[in-house]
Amino acid sequence: MSFTNDLKVGMRQFGRNPGSMIMAIMAFSLGLGLVGLMLTLVFGVVKGHPENIDFDEIYVLQWDESTRHLWKSGGQFGFIRPKDFRDIDERQEVFENFAFMRNHTFNVVIDKYAERFEGSFVSHDLFDTLGVKPHLGSFFQKGDDEPDRLKKAVISYDIWKNHFESRETIIGQSFNINGQAATIIGVAPEGFDFPSRNDVWMNDTTDYINMSRIDGNGLFVLATLKEGQTLASALAPMNTIAKSMSEEYPETNTGYIAFEITPLSENFIGEDFPRMVYILVACSLMVLLIACTNVANLTLSRATTRVKELAIRASLGGKRQRLVFQMLVEGLAVAFFGGIGGLIIAIWTSKMIWAFVLSASYANPPRWMSMDVDLTTIGYLALITLVASIIASIVPALRASRTDVNEILKDNSRGASSLKMGVFSKILVLAQLSVSCGLLIATTAMVNGAKEAAVFEPPYDPSEIMTARFDFPESYFPGEQRGEAIRRLQELMELNPNLEGVGFSTSVDMLFNWDSRWALRGREAATREDYIQARNEIVSDNYFELLDIPILYGRGFEAMDRGENAEKVCVINEQLAKRLWPDDIQDAIGQQIRDVYSDTIPWSTIIGIVPDTKMAGPGANKTDEQLGGVYRPLSSANDQPSLTVFAKTGGNPTAQADQIRAILHNEDESFALYRIKTVASAVKESQFGVIFFRNIFGMFGAAAFLLASIGVYGVMDFSIRQKFQEYSIRQALGAGRQTIFKHVFKMSSWQIILGVVIGSAIGYGILGLMTQNQMVSPSANPAIFIIPILLIVGVSIAALYAPARYVVNANLADTLRGE
Amino acid sequence: MSEINSPLIHLKDISKVFLTDEIETHALSGINLDINEGEFLSISGPSGCGKSTLLSILGLLDSPSAGSYSLAGREVASLNNNERSRIRNLDVGFIFQSFNLIGDLTVYENVELPLVYRGLKASERKTRVLEALEKVQMSHRQSHYPHQLSGGQQQRVAVARALGGTPRILLADEPTGNLDSKNGGKVMEMLQELNKEGATICMVTHDERYNDMASRIVHLFDGKVVDETVAAVAQA
After folding, report:
1. Which of A176, A395, B81, B161 has its CA 20 to 30 A from that of A283?
2. Is residue B70 part of a domain?
3. What is d(CA A187, CA A140) in angstroms, rounded to the nearest whole number?
């Protein structure tokens, strides 16, 4: 009953102070909206998983990276090689299901043209391990992954619906997939695209038995525990297996003595993204804190005008806790509307951000992921709203209810001055200044970092170069056959009169290249890790000419370097030359280097040096850029599963792509051309992660700055008005306007200085956490501190000026008489 | 600099009009008043007659709507804010009904404040502050804060603050209004003593008992001077 009455009184406050209430609701809405947005990211992305897969019951098995220094052979980021998988599967007794998958792309010929889909080669029991049932047909059977078995494929519900018109007769039909006939045996359930955006899953019939232990791509191993087993109980016997294999196969397995077994729920999203999201969650809570301080200040301002009302209530027998409760209920009413506003903001911003994520080819989230505002998000938001309303109301309520009733009731003039909130107001100002300063520093760092990361200034115009990628069908075996095909395609494209300047590269989107360890003939290293690290790119002989990259010393690749039996040569960039021959980079010419990751790659003679090129891609950190890189001729690409083809566009990338696609189709109908874009747009897309976090930080920074500007003005105004009488006395005693202004600024200067110092520390802390993260690299430019500090100081001075002006223009006679 | 025999304060046709919601309220109309150096003037009258408004104008806390106000021979009615502040600091000492001490400052600091605004050296300030506190017998409380003092003590500190700057005139607005009769009496005795020592005092009070302590009483009614009485004490 009393709650209802208190609520009624609270609602009446809306009518009496509409401006103040609307401000409070807006502040809450903004703060809660950003928290709601982050909750959608936490529950939809970080903690989310598809409905039909239990991410907590499925485990991912990898080599323990902490023992990496002991590994004799190069590890593939801890992924288990096929031969090891077979051995472990035979020996282990703790897992019920023990399955693997490895990512691959599949060119499926539908109506004579190949469509490229993301997919995986999988072991026969993958679907059982995941606990998924087919929508149509069946999944793989035991034995399907033996080398002599037929190629089978499971397709996604999306392909079935969009490419095969949901025909049930598709089951049992044979299609050309990656140049080989494969039978579609099943359709996965709706929404299933495990692990991410997969549309085709094929049985892996690779002959692993006759493969050497070191060969084959690393596998993504998934397992479910036998009943009665736990993660802890499983680890010891699994490590025993690792150790015994290490002893049995010292050539390849030395050092591989422990496993890392993690639930899929932890492994799936990795560590960097959740860390970044939790930093953002902390930042959103900081914005909410600023909003709370704004609301607290507004509540405080209202409380000063209601001191008499509260005193009357107290004189009529209202207990202190009752009065506090009443103010809390009023605060709750404001928070309720703020919560609704926050929910609307969360829905709107999450939709906007998710649309951005889906538009970026580099993001490629699984289909089950979303940033929808679901019931969990709403529940947490409601709880946070409740807590925020208490935070914003409790101190003003306690202070307002603690005044001397007798003093107030007997003195009509004392209303506004009876409530002493000096320390609390100062804390409010300090909190707002420091938190907003910290967030602004993080925002500026992200904005600057994004700007720096997008710097990509190749000698050519990236908007004039088209890049596209194609994969070799399985029928094009690595080696001579694939090398022949490359030479044939190159000649066909060069001869095509409609194509102007076409080249090849192994670089993804003409931006990213892989790392290799390089041996320099005559300089031996003790272990593989001790060899020099540099980027590795295979390019066609017209690459440097087409991309306007000058040859500084020696020569570039020529037609004579194309042949299978031509002398093995390479070109290095200036950065690498300086690392290896710091005295005179020209000494590099004629020297020989070799990629140590593969014994089959022969020594190559350095024939030329080109200027530094961003072989690590735009946004790479400085250390990465300084590695330098090696270019090898296209004749070295005969083991590559995919190649990038680039062309001068003449303003129309699609036209070039059509010509190239036609040439590829004539070569083999199972070729598919994908990732078609200009290099300029690839650069933009590659910055997805930085732009994503920059945008969110931008929202936080803008919200924090807006709220803090209003809030600091409000608190300063309130603080100065609290000292209104004092300033009038000072003026009566002879203080001039300038003296009062000086006094006001001096009085608040410590708050501003301390706020900026604490804010800088907060900003520094956030930057520290962000730099630990591989996903983004905030700028280290001093401007990221200077600009926010100047903004905060500027806003504070502006916030002080208006109330100070009001004070000096007040009627002294009235004030001193207490009127 | 005032001329010989000319009054310290000379008001001519002073009026003050307040405009509230487009309604004009005449707080003061055609006030002509001289206050001589060394005089103890009391302004009396019923509530709302304009006493405090007149005192505010005298103390340059407010400006007249019309008329001329000369203080020590200088026209001050239309000075700018900074000049008014300077005159308040140098020539006027205030004693308010509600004491108007600054709660965050000690007794010493409160008394020192106008001297700080005057730009005096610390040593000179100290001498003056201690002298003023000695005069009102509050030296022993110089480190206290106002809230640690009784009303009477606070008003004595306010008197010390007004005296510290050795102003030409002390303006006292209901100085006993917030005090009990015992403390009120003490403060009035103090003012009388100061007047005897040569201080010029202009006081607004409701209390008939204290009117008699002044050398001249000006009666206001509806913003006009309706009567002037030379007090018995002065005649004697």
Report:
1. A395
2. no
3. 11
